[in-house]
Amino acid sequence: MKHAVVHWEIGGPDHGRLRDFYTGMFGWPTQTADENYTLVQPEQGPGGGIMRTGGTMPAYVTFYVEVDDLDKMLDRAVELGGARAVPPTKIGEGMEFALFTDPAGNLVGLMALAGE
């Protein structure tokens, strides 16, 4: 499916508390990636992550849409009244993400996979 939601994140300053809250709330199975990030895989739908925010980064909830070209889609967001928030950033072998804000200030993620 073109432009499918492939990932989501919930971030806040107390990673452990958020992890425990959502695990208790929904029974989501989790796998700790490191002290700042926990992977979540519900029985249905895309997986996600719970992240510790730091510094001046506020708490947030966002989703990631798979795209072929991060820069092209960031430019499109700007054309439509949004703004670039995080430039294309490599996060794993063959995987990159970027973030933009929509006209209302909502943070939205983009994900590109090598060979897609």
TrEMBL record:
Superkingdom of source: Bacteria
Membrane spanning stretches: none
Domain VOC, chain residue ranges per copy: 4-113
Cited InterPro entries: Anthracycline_SecMetBiosynth, Glyas_Bleomycin-R_OHBP_Dase, Glyoxalase_6, VOC_core
PANTHER family the UniProt entry points to: GLYOXALASE-RELATED, VOC DOMAIN-CONTAINING PROTEIN
Protein name in the entry: VOC domain-containing protein
Organism per entry: Planobispora siamensis
